[in-house]
Amino acid sequence: MPYKRPTLTELRARSQSAITTGLEKIGALLRFSNMRVLGDVCAGMSHLHFGFLDWIARQTNPSTATGEFLAMWGALVRVYRKPATAATGQSVPITGTAGAVAKAGAVLNRGDGYQYTLDADVTIGSNETGSGTVTAVLPDASADSTGGGASGNAAAGTSLKFDVAVEGIDSGVTVTTAITGGADIEGEEAFRSRVLGAFQNTPQGGSDADYKKWALAVPGITRVWVVRRLMGAGTVGVYIMLDGNTGNNDSGFPVGKDGVSSYETQYPGGTATGNQLTVADALYSQQPATAVVYVCSPVKTSVPFTISGLSAASATLKASINTAIDTVFFNSGAPGGTIVLSDIQAAIAGISGTSGFIVVSPATNIVMATGCMPVRGVMTYL
Predict the structure, then answer these.
(1) How does pLDDT run across 243-271, given as a tens digit for each residue?
(2) Rounded CA gap, 58 and 273, in Å?
(3) Residue ranges covered by each domain of the chain
(4) How far is CA 280 from CA 81, 211, 240, in A?
(5) What sign results for the dihedral spanned by CA atoms 359, 361, 367, 373?
(6) How far apart are the C-alpha atoms of 344 and 297, rounded to whole Å?
(7) Rg of the chain over CA atoms, in angstroms?
(8) What is the DSSP string of 19-47?
(9) For residue range 189-235, what is the model confidence (pLDDT) as tens digits?
(10) Are 227 and 336 in contact, with CB atoms under 8 Å apart?
(11) Which DSSP helix (H) or strand (E) runs through 296?
């Protein structure tokens, strides 16, 4: 039977009862009498003690532990909270006078104040252009508890400007390829999920759960699916998503090319790049020696909807329906998986104001081809 923690009101009543029964001829305890005030103080202190004991109890297991105690539970199964990571940009064009040099460490500012540093010296060529690599400067964790890593991602076309003028170098820079790879500090609930998964799934030397655990340990990775023999006997396919961490889109699809680790040299398919390469290289030292792991991005597959009975729906109602469909796709979507149409209908029916709707299209369960992941397409209301 669970223990019922007494409320502050109950503790005050108990304290007042103890005072009136323990002292002779004390009479009623007036609101501002010394004995009533002392009784309320004792009740308040007891309430704090109960609260502290309750907090201690929550730290005794990973399901409810928080902060450093959750981190210690994770350390027991070698699961550690993913830190913030800095975004990087490749082939950033820098223009100026031929022969001029932009020194490594030079700071470039984005319009919103986010900063990047030049990784190596860039010498302007005879065509008055050069190319360099930049890395985002992570904010002080004390100022931004998330680490601010995801904020460093930027789409192609973003404008940067040198913090300090460099002789012979144009101050303005326009990014031609997306700056990606930035991720915030892992959220506590996401970390808890990985810790519980490690306790529930003991290492099996290369099971599906092992590959999922290894991939989710890479900063920025939020969802993982494992497919056996994706490219034939002896191969393992690992599909990844980076929800909210990709920079050039909001859907979480990886930025890069599918393939194997840079340490693999004997198998076709090519070496991965971008987010896929980061995960492939992280898996290489942990995967079984006989396995060849291909890290892939799910193929974004648009699913249009036609809904009748809601032709007069407001923009707010339509936005709620969009969110409901996106949530079903997020929770149930998987590369090559199936979205049950009744789940979408139930999600829409749960929104106030949708009574009488009919999902005209799709008319059946949404079945994805191998590797394909559904995303909401054009919404048509009849």
Answers:
(1) 875 444 457 899 889 999 999 977 777 89
(2) 43
(3) 8-58, 88-174, 201-296, 302-381
(4) 20, 11, 11
(5) negative
(6) 24
(7) 29
(8) HHHHSTT-----TT-HHHHHHHHHHHHHH
(9) 999 999 999 999 888 889 999 999 999 999 989 999 999 999 999 99
(10) yes
(11) strand 292-296
